Structure formats: C-alpha cells, structure tokens
DNA sequence: TAACTTATCT
DNA sequence: TAGATAAGTT
C-alpha cells in the first residue's frame, strides 16, 4: 500500500477544469484568478484550469468543443442573454447534466437554483472558503464521474447547498470505491451518455491489480490514482471532427496520429483516437456485414454490376474527389469498387483477408443509437456534399451519411424512419435518408444508392432504383420510371425530361442524356440507342426509328433527314452525312466513316460526341488518318451547348461487327503503331472476362476483331468497312452491344428473383 | 521504438 | 456498449 501510494503520488495529476461564466468582466477576472491561484490539498496532484467566458453564448460554444474537458461550471445568475439557470438548462439539453454552480448576490435565487438542478449556490461576493468548496466539488465531480451524484434518483439532493454536499464527498468516495463494480453496467453507461460525465477514473488492469492491494476508501489514493486517463465522451461534435479528419485524410490513410493532429483537441490523446478509430472500423465492418443481405441481392461489380460491365461504373454526373472521405470510401470503394470486389468492398479498413464493405449501414447506426451517435435517436448524419456527388442543385448542401452533423434534424423513427441517414434500409425509408441501399422506398433527398422500391424526388440513388425514381433523382438505374432531372443511367421505365439516364427501356423525354432508349426519344436527347424515333438534335448513335435534322446519330434504321452525319441508315437519307445507306443518299452527305460516338464514352460516362484527339499514350504525329465527316457535322453539343469531346483512341471507335467488316466497300485508315497494343490492352482485360462485353463485335472474339488490323508492324492498316454486304436485322445491330442481351437476361433473372414474392410492382421488362 | 492494429477488459 | 488499456505487429 505504501508503495502504491507513493507511486500514485509521483505519477498522478488530477487535472480539473472549471468554467466560470459571468458578464461582469472584473468579477470574472478576479474570480478566475482566485480560483487558479487557490491551492487545495496537495497541489502536486491537482492542476486547476479556469476557463473564463463572458456570457451564456460563449459558454455554450465553449462546451461544444470542450465539453469533455470541463468538470464544473460556475455561472452568474444574472446575465443578459439568459440567466444562470437558463444556461444550466440549456447545458443540460445540449450536453447532459454537467455540474453547475450558480452564483448571485441575490440569496433569493438559491432555492430556485437548487430546485432547478443546480449543483449548488454561492452567494456573492465569493469568500475564500467558498472557493475551497468549489474546488472540492470540482474534485468530487472529476473523481466521481460515474457516481450517483448526478443521477435523476439523486436529484432531490440538489436541495442541499454546497457545504452539505461537500461534506458528503468522503462518503461518496467510499461509495464509489466499494460499489463501483456492483453497479450495473447499464447504469454507468447511461450515466456516461446522458449525464455527460466528462471523466471517469477507471484504473487500468494493472492498476486494478495494485488497487486490489490498497484499501478502498483511501482518500489520498483515490485522489491520486495513477495514469487515470480521463474517459472522454465522443460527443457529436467531437465525432464530427473525427469524421472530418478522416474525410480530410482519407479513410485509407487515416491513422490515429494523423486524425489527432487534424482534430487538434488538446485533451485528446492518440490512444483516444485509436480506440475510437477501432470502434469506427468495427462499425464499418458491421455495416458491411449487415449490408451483405442486400449486396447478395445486388451486383457485385459496382454500379452496373448486374451487368457484367465492371468498367462501367461511373455515372455521368458524378464528380468525385479522391480527397473526400465520401469519395475515397463510399464512392470509390463501394459504389465504384474495382472489379473483383463485391459491391462496396474494400480492404482499406482491415488487415484481414476479409474485405471490409461499408456500403450499408446497420440499423443501429442508422438510428444513431450506437457508439457514434449516442445522444440521439435516429440518424442525424448528413448527406453527401454536392462537391462529391455533383448532382443537381436540389442536392446542395448534402453531405455524407457519416459527415459531420450540420443540418441535423430530429428523428421520427427508430426503424427506417425519416431523416435517417443510414446506409441500408430493409423496409421503407423516409425522407432525407442517406442510405445506400434501401429495400423499401426512398423519399426525397435520399442519396440512397439502391432502392428496391420507389424513389421519389431528389433522391440521389447512385446505383439502382428498383422502384420508381422521381424528379431529380440521380439514380443510375431505375427499373421503374424516372422522372425529370434524373440523371439515372438506366431506366427500365420511362425517362422524362432532362434526365441524363444512360439507358431507358421506355421513353426518353427531352434533354435526357440517356444512352439507350427502347422507346421514343425526344428533343435534345443524346442517347446512343433508340429503338423508337429520334427527333431533331439527338446525337444518338443508333435509332431504330427515324432520325430527323441535325441528328448526329450514327445509325438509323429509319429515315435520316438532312445534315445528319449518321453513319448508317437503313432508310432514306437526304443531305445526310451518313456513310452507309441502305436506302437513298442525297447530296451533302459527307459521312464517310464514323465509327462510334459512344463505346468508350459510354464506358467513361461521357456524353456522346466525336472529336478525334490524340490518344494520351500515342504519338501526336501518329494520328490515325481517318476519313471522317467534318467535325462540325460530328461535334455534338451537350444540353449546355458545350462540345463534347472524346479521345481518339480505339475505344472511341465502335468497331463495326464482322458482318459489316466483310463488306465490299472498305475504307482504309492509318493507325498508330501502337494501335494493336492499345486495342489489346483494351480488349484483354485481365481482371475479368466480362469486360469483353464492350467489344462491339457482339460476341465475336478478340481474334476475330483483330482481323481488321493489318499485321504490319509499323504502319498498320485498319481495314474498316462500315458497309454491309447484307442487311442486318435489328437484333444484330451493332450499337446495342453494350446492352448485351445475355447480360440483360441475367439482370432480368436477377430482377425476377429480386421481385419474386414482392407485392405490387416489379420492373417493367421491355422484352415482355 | 514509435505507431499501429487487435484483443481484452470493465 | 463505449472507451481504455494490454498485447501483438509493423
């Protein structure tokens, strides 16, 4: 005992922080000085810091940062903004039951103060003896962070004044020392979270062993337990800061030291951060585990992985920044995971072989009843920031579901209710959810990735909506309808105006940048494929209907009107620039060879355009000598009037399939010497064989494709024929290659299984 | 040996 | 459960 006591005395300093609030600057200064200068007990074991603030507002703002660091608050009663008791109540609301002592020269406020839950009352002017009592109370608060001093059950004790309280201290010490282990854990937990005890004095295991040899109730020993680190509470703000740090550093690079440096909180230690980081990673792991329920039902190759197109992973309108936490984790690692990883899989967070997937959030975290939001019910995480998602203006201000907690709103549901920012919802989820996957509906402002039911307006569903997606939902895929301003990529339902959906199996309305439509396309739709009509200014590549003026569609099975630089037409052309015509060609149709607007652009989620440019890796002097229509005929303008540009590499060329390449009429192109290498690189992807889907030869092997490449080493000639020597039926139409029927079939099977047993709607299978 | 991760404790 | 701490690893 003597040894341990000496040990403690040498190594332990009890740091106590007292915040004094008074609008009287003179009193505030004097009070602070006297408190700091006051020596109580053994000063070698105590270190007092006074935080002086001039009003309630400053007190509250200070507490937001230093809540865990403040052991006692001493406040004047009469202050301009709110009086001391109002401040106390506000502190309780925001930070839990921090001990507050009220000071006033008005002794009539003592009873009111104590009745309202103040820890004590001190009459001004403050006497020196009162300072000692303040100290003693602060020490008590510090040491008895988990004592019953602040509990509701003990609330009546607040009727006693400070002297009485202080007299209780030794007994409370004994009580704490002897009954601590007997207290149910739930008690200590609730105390920690609801009462906001700044610190506890749990000894380490080693210390426990030592302490076992020390008589309990030894006041000196209790006061000077060694290395008793304050048990910090990760408040919302603190956790927000933690998340900001992770976002800033990047999840993969975020280690305790860096996080700590970023957070720059004086009382935080690296161990604190490490511990929290561990819990956070465990949380993410849980998210993944919980999410496996959904991910098993979902594609495993990122966004479009129900298609075996692992490379087609970037939605048109995402502008992810690698520096953002959301970008590096959620987007890059989950939604846009590399081929070979399951959806959302990442190994960043684990050293184990088990990949960490964190694209789904367990409900307990959604509801914020867990470690990382212990003080609230329901989610109050924020939504993705616009800079990360670069979605429409409706999404402004959104941040990640794990972003700091601005715009926090009250929760209305413990399970999948409104304002939940969770990742996964098995049932319906209401407004403002940030969930990535919802098996229920998604309401407005839900940046959910997947929804198995309806998604309504301003939902940022990245991946899929298996229900409807309504206005301004940037869902990439919808199996039901997408309404205006939905930059969804694929829709199995209708797309209405201004939806840059890539694929639609139904109608596309104006300004929809969908790549494919199985129905009609209206104005300003830069889709690639259309099985319906194409109206003017649609730079589609393929239309199974008519093409009207100024349509840069490559292929039309219908009529091409003047100034259409379409390559192929199966109907009549007038003044079209189409090269191949299975009908009539009229004057001013300069179309010679126009291979593709969209193969790589589709892969890269670029708008359909054609503008030959040097391949990044090719010699600028070795440009392919391709006869192409004038650029003015080919350059496409997006809806904003911007010229869309594509790189002039092989990926930008949609190789006509073999039937075409066997055509009589040929056009020769000089290709760069590295063309073959480039093409091989493009078409021989190691990671997955599914990549061959983008080979527009539609099921033909790479070798077959290579027939088009002359064997000469230095001056390879690409014998590209865009003519057909025989008519193709629509099913073979080359530009549909990206919608591999087999893949679609797989997806339909997937969807069938997904919706099997679901009441109500499934998705609209265009093949039916 | 500092820093990190994981396991364990309370 | 949340956080601290021990133990093992890099």
UniProtKB/TrEMBL annotation:
SMART domains reported in the protein's UniProt record: REC
Source organism, top-level taxon: Eukaryota
List of residues that carry 4-aspartylphosphate: 76
GO terms (BP aspect): cytokinin-activated signaling pathway; phosphorelay signal transduction system
Domain Response regulatory: 17-139
Gene Ontology cellular component list: nucleus
Pfam family membership, one: Response_reg
Molecular functions (GO terms): DNA binding
Biased composition (Polar residues): 189-204, 385-395, 465-494, 504-532
Keyword annotations of the record: Activator, Nucleus, Phosphoprotein, Transcription, Transcription regulation, Two-component regulatory system
Region (Disordered): 181-205, 385-407, 465-549
Ranges where the HTH myb-type domain occurs: 228-285
Coiled coil regions, renumbered to chain: none
Places the protein is found: Nucleus
NCBIfam families: myb_SHAQKYF (TIGR01557)
Protein name: Two-component response regulator ARR21
Protein species of origin: Raphanus sativus (Radish)
